[in-house]
Structures are given as C-alpha cells and as structure tokens.
Specification:
With about 180 residues, the protein is of the alpha/beta class. About 35% of the residues lie in helices and about 20% in strands. The longest helix is centred in the middle third of the chain and has 13 residues. It is elongated, with a radius of gyration of 18 Å. The relative contact order is 0.20. The structure holds iron/sulfur cluster. The site of iron/sulfur cluster has 13 residues, from helix 1 and helix 4.
Length: about 180
C-alpha cells in the first residue's frame, strides 16, 4: 500500500520551520516509514505529480510567486497547515507592511546607508517575482486547515501534529507546545 504523501514549502520564511521539522532527530526515520515526502526542499521534488495528504507551509506571501505556490499547494493537498508565525501572521517579513512598498525599495536599493548603487536603479528584471503591496498571512490567500504557532513551532509540535493527522485523529496539543512566551 502506498504511503500518504507530505509536501512542504518555504514562502516568505527563513527555513527555520523546516529546520525544526528536522529537529525531530531520529524520529525522521519513523516519519519516513509513515509518509513519502513529495514536493519539498527536503527531497528536492519541485512539482506536484500526485495528490498529497498533507501540505506544510512555512512563511507568508510577499510576492506573486508565493501566491502561485500557495494556491498550487491548496489545489494538491487534502490538508493544508500554516507552520510558524510567518505563515500565520506574516512574521518578521510583515514588518514592512507599515511602510509603503516604494519607500521600502528606495531604502533597500537607493537610500540605505550601506547601499552602493551608482545607477540608482531598483532591480526590475522580469524574472524577479513582483512584490506584493504587503506581506499576507496564508489564510488570507487560501483556506488553511490548521495553524501551528511558534517561531519556529517546536519539533515536538510538528511531530505530534503529523502523527495525529496520519492516524486520522484530531490535533490535540498540550499547552506547553503552543504557548507564546
Ligand atoms: S516562523 Fe520563525 S522560524 Fe519559521 S520561517 Fe518565520 S522566522 Fe523562520
């Protein structure tokens, strides 16, 4: 019998949530027995070629490519989970939301104290994904089934959540695994 498939991605995130998943240590071998990793940087599969049981999303949406990837995950995954504070509420990247995008770009590429940019040009190659006006949490773009808070969520939170879902049980995490302090 084929194993359920799990897909993961990092949108506007730092890969810390992926690192936390790897922090389940030797249980990664148990996880590999339970599931097959599909589209994910963990196994370097770049495209969906079959349906996945679970999609783990790290990071929110800061550009059009993030939106495209997130919608692709929603289309191809039965259960979609926002993993970590960036996916849930934008996190650190969303600090730019209080500043107009044009001002952010000017500071980053022209006016910043450490910037050396003799052409005074803001990169605009068509290969670079267009930035959104602000950073959006995932649930404002697609329906999200579960939110696992933390920066990053502890490995134990990820492990217990995956095991519960794979066994058809509700996610019931103890307070210690979802507290914010
Ligand atoms: S929630 Fe924290 S660890 Fe996860 S992607 Fe955001 S900054 Fe990185």
């Amino acid at each position: 019998m084929s194993k359920p498939k799990v897909a993961t991605t990092s949108l506007a995130g730092c890969f810390g949530c992926h690192m936390s998943l790897l922090d389940i240590d030797e249980r990664i071998l148990d996880l590999a027995e339970l599931v097959e990793f599909h589209k994910s940087p963990i196994v370097d599969v770049k495209r969906f070629s079959s349906r996945c049981a679970i999609g783990l999303i790290e990071g929110g949406c800061c550009n059009e490519e993030n939106v495209h990837v997130l919608r692709d995950f929603r289309k191809n995954c039965d259960v979609l989970i926002s993993v970590g504070d960036c996916a849930i509420m934008g996190g650190i990247p969303a600090m730019r939301n209080v500043i107009p995008l044009e001002e952010c770009l000017e500071e980053a590429y022209i006016k910043g104290i450490t910037v050396h940019n003799p052409n005074q040009r803001i990169p605009d190659d068509k290969e670079i994904p267009l930035l959104l006006n602000k950073v959006y949490p995932c649930h404002e773009v697609v329906k999200i089934d579960y939110h696992l808070p933390g920066c990053p969520p502890p490995a134990e939170t990820l492990w217990q959540s995956l095991v519960a879902l794979l066994n058809g049980k509700p996610i019931e995490l103890p307070y210690e695994l979802i507290k914010y302090d």
